């Protein structure tokens, strides 16, 4: 699921502007954590 679809889905459930800002930063943080976790997994596979 890409970020656009996720944001669109979230907007339908959380229509207020404040909710959008909070959710956007939440999505961005989750995305970053997933990327970092993925990098760690790749590193551990190499070892």
UniProtKB/TrEMBL annotation:
Organism from which the protein derives: Candidatus Beckwithbacteria bacterium GW2011_GWA2_43_10
Protein name as annotated: Uncharacterized protein
